[in-house]
Amino acid sequence: MKAKRWRCFFCDEVFTSRREAYLHFGDDNSCAPDVPACVDPLRSDEKARMKELREAIDHGLQMQIRAEKVDDLESQISQFRDDLEREFGQGCTTVWQAADRYKNALFRISELEKDAVTAVEAP
């Protein structure tokens, strides 16, 4: 598979990494994309600030994606706890409690079966 490349039609520079291309072209997902760095020449300190700004925006977007994933996982955990309470009774909010209640139920069933067999065998 051929590596993806980005070419600037203004300065003819070719970028092979997504990060370098992003730093040169800016964000292309906005309504008004940034002007490429070669078209709007900046002083070196402005270039550094622009690079930091673009990296901060990128970091912010990544954190937003992570936050959405965390929200989804928290929702799944809450749903799982609700399912545990519904299936194993109120106050059952952990898998350990569910397993304990399940084992207790199996024990009670086996005791009742023994009592039933004893009652049938008794004269």
Query: Spans of 5+ residues with little confidence (pLDDT < 50)?
Result: none
Radius of gyration: 31 Å
Mean of residue pLDDT values: 79
Strand order of the largest sheet: 1-2
Described by strand count, sense and barrel closure, the largest sheet is: 2 strands, antiparallel
- Which shape, going by the Cα principal axes? rod-shaped
N-to-C order of helices and strands: EEHHH
Counted beta strands: 2
> Helix fraction?
55-70%
| Number of helical regions | 3
Query: How many angstroms does the end-to-end distance come to?
Result: 83 Å
Write up what this structure looks like.
- The chain is 65% helix and 3% strand.
- The longest helix is centred in the middle third of the chain and has 45 residues, at 44-88.
- By secondary structure, it is mainly alpha-helical.
- The chain has a domain at 1-41.
- A hairpin with a 6-residue loop joins strand 1 and strand 2 (14-15).
- It has a two-stranded antiparallel ribbon with strand order 1-2.
- The protein has helices at residues 18-25, 44-88, 95-121, and strands at residues 6-7, 14-15.
- It contains three helices and two strands; from the N terminus they run E-E-H-H-H.
Short structural summary:
The chain has 123 residues and is mainly alpha-helical. Helices cover 65% and strands 3% of the residues. It has helices at 18-25, 44-88, 95-121, and strands at 6-7, 14-15.
